[in-house]
Amino acid sequence: MDLMSDDTKLWSAIAATDLCTLATIKRDGRPQLSDVNYTADTPTRVLRISTRETLAKVHNLRRDPRGSIRVIGPGGGGYVAAEVRASFSPPSADEHDATVEELVDIYRSIRGEDHPDWDDYRRAMVADGRIVLTLHVERLYGWVM
């Protein structure tokens, strides 16, 4: 087991998966944990998450945009943590607005092109009040095997 400080290897572990635990800060200072799927953009080191505006993680990050994510290393060896800063899209308001288009892109990046009914998906994004939560990676640490 080698401790890795090489940012590139740590980022590669984040980019190799689409599931993480997101930690946000509750009003009382304790962490609030959510397992979320995400997309990772390597050139910008930005993660994107589809979520509902009414959820605790969104409320916490609007109050304090600092958070952290944790992913398990490849093959279960080690972990990578990223300190992140959040930003938000506007809530989806129309089936073809920019937010819904980005939510479709996130779905396709995680699940692929196959969806049984894209029109229904778009309607659901608006009905759910979905937003794109963008996490800007500021620091990586951990170790991977």
TrEMBL record:
KW Oxidoreductase (keyword) present? yes
Entry keyword annotation includes Oxidoreductase: yes
* Location of the Pyridoxamine 5'-phosphate oxidase N-terminal domain: 13-143
Q: Name one GO molecular function term.
A: coenzyme F420 binding
Top-level taxon of origin: Bacteria
Q: Which SUPFAM superfamilies match?
A: FMN-binding split barrel
* Keyword terms: Oxidoreductase
List GO terms (cellular component aspect): cytosol
Q: What is this protein called?
A: F420-dependent protein
Q: Which organism is it from?
A: Actinoplanes friuliensis DSM 7358
